[in-house]
Every structure is written in structure tokens, then in C-alpha cells.
Amino acid sequence: MGCCSVTQRHTGTDEVGPDEIELLEIAGTGVWSLAETRQSVRNGTGPGPPPPVRCPSVKHLIHEEPKPVERKISCHNIQVHQDTQMVWGWSKEDVHHRLYTQPIREWEGRAAHTYGDIIYSSLVTLHNTHTKAMGERYLVLFSFHLLILALDHSHHDFIYEGILPLSALEVRIISQDPSSPYMFEISGPMVDSKIFVCASAGDRKNWMDNIEDRRYKSLRQQLSPSHSALAYLLPCDETWKREELKRYLLRAPIWQWEGTSIQHMGLPVYLSLVHITNSQKQGPQERLLVLFQLDVLILSVDKQRVRVNYEGRLPRRSIQALERSALTGTLEFQLTGELMEPLYVFCTYPEDYQTWIFQLQQPDKEIHTMSNPPAPPLIPKKRRS
What we know:
It is built from 8 helices and 18 strands. The chain has 385 residues and is α+β, with helices and mostly antiparallel strands. Strands 3, 4, 5, 6, 7, 8, 9 and 10 form an 8-stranded antiparallel β-sheet that branches. Residues 117-216 form the PH domain. This is PH domain-containing protein.
């Protein structure tokens, strides 16, 4: 068995468990605030497989490096220039790739990829309503969390300040006056109020629309704010969940992986959560079935919805789906192929069943294989006598 298909700086699953609540420190007043000392709840679930290789901790480096510059400015003089949206000359795609693959100073908790897609991000100004101080921040909206980063321009480095679950936030526009700064506020019953100033009305609208949309989706899941994005995306019973889960699998570590990495398999065509039994009549096991252009990938997910495990892959050219719904009255099909025991696959939704049958149901090999017709007889050439 191998280790993982992707090596990240760390996964955090063995250290903190799924019940960790990052960055939200219970202060004396009972309000969660972004603090230098952060508290996490650890889950003692016993030893597991060794985690993927991660980079050494960079904790306390912030105390040795210069803090982000903050300047006192009157709220009436707040300005954020359009050209500040480009961070160190990097495109947003470059920034997102760095966040997923490189260590972030003072980072704590689960790895960044476990928070799912980056929905939106931009450079903003944080306005402290008490001290009137201003400071640059880079906001990153994940699938169900909001990440706040400070910037160290001298080292082109991001500094972790906290990550907030969207389900615990409220967001509102400060003023609709076109002459006022483009500000919005995030707050909550257990979160300190924070005011951010955007570079443009369009940037603020993007933040408002995206936060409200993702907040609505997170509230529908009725899960703890400490859950990973994988827990929100399973079961993948909606189109947007399927699309985000496809992207999640392409960058998340997959434990016990074997063979060519998942990135070299192309883009996922379809996926769904199913239950599979084999001819040995073992009990049904939950599996995540992922369809690629040339293969069908079989994965499993742990009970905490944190870790994905590799269970195997089947080449599409050598397998075939046989309908069984008429016999059993359920959404079941049989997966057969060369050099493999038959697998019985149970789908939850008719859409999943119809898609798998359509994609994997192959005609008989005699019909599918086109034999070359015999060549026509050669006509003898006429010779002159």
C-alpha cells in the first residue's frame, strides 16, 4: 500500500480531530475573538495511519517578524485603491494555489484544503471601530468558512489571524451612500464585530452575495461549525455539492493510494455515494464512486467525514453494468468485469442509478467489436493474346 496521492503540509486529522474549533477563543466576556492564543478541542480516537509529511511548524515567527503596518485614519478619509487588489503582483489563481500548497505563518488546525473550494477572495482594509486604526487584510471565502489573513509585505508572506464558520456570522452593508467607503460588517452572537472596507462597490457586492449564498447553504446542512468541508458536501445530493466535491478530491490527500496520482486521471465525469456488496454476501459498505474518462475510482470516507481512503479502481473498458432494479425493486445494478468478482451497487437516488447505467452499460462484445469484412476478390487483368 502506498501513502497518499497528494502530499500537503499537514492534514491535522490525527492531531486535532473533527471537533476542533479553530481560532475561536472563549474570552472572559463570553465572546469569541481572534486571539494570539487559540484554543482547540482534541479528539482522542487512538492511533491511526501515519499522517502525510508536513512542513515544520512556524509558530511564534510572528513575534520575530515585523507586524503588518496599521495607521490611524478617520473613517471619513478611508480609501482603498483599485491597484491594491493585486497582491505582490500575483494573480488570484497564484494566491489560491499558494494558500493550498504553502505553509501560512501562525497557521493552526486542519490544512487549508479541508475547507473546500475558495469561492472568493480579495484585499480589503480592516477598520477598528475602537482605535480607528486601519490595516490591510486578505479575506478568503471557503465553502463554509471565512479566513482572515494579515500581510507581511517585506517577506511576501501571509499571517493567519483566524477562520470563522459562516453559520455563526451575520453580514450587513454599513452605508449605501455612493460617497461613503464601500464597507460591510460581519458580526455574530459569539463573534466580535469587524468592519471591512472594499476597493469598489462591485467587490463589496461580491462579498455580500457570496457570503449570504454560502451561509444559507451551510445552515441547511445543520452541522457543527467545526466540521470539515467534506462533511458539508456529503451526501452529494445537489449539483453544487457534486461539483465542489470533484474539485475537493483533486487536491485532498487520499490515504493508502496506489498507482498513478488522481491528478493524472483527468477530470471527474460523475460521482455519487453508493453502497456496495460483493458475491461473498458481506454487508453493504458505503463507498464514493467516481467516474473518470478511463477508470472508475472507488473511495471510502471515515465516519467523521474528514479522511478519504483509496479502495481501488476499475478500467472502464473491462467492466459492465447490468440492471437489477426490475428483479429487486431497488436502485441496484451489478458491476461485472474481467478478473473481478461481481459487485452489487445500491444507489440512493434515481438520477445516480440512471447515470451509472448509461455510462457503464456496454453492448455485447460481439456487437461492439467490429470485425473487418473480407476483402473483395481481385478481378484478373485481361491480357492480349
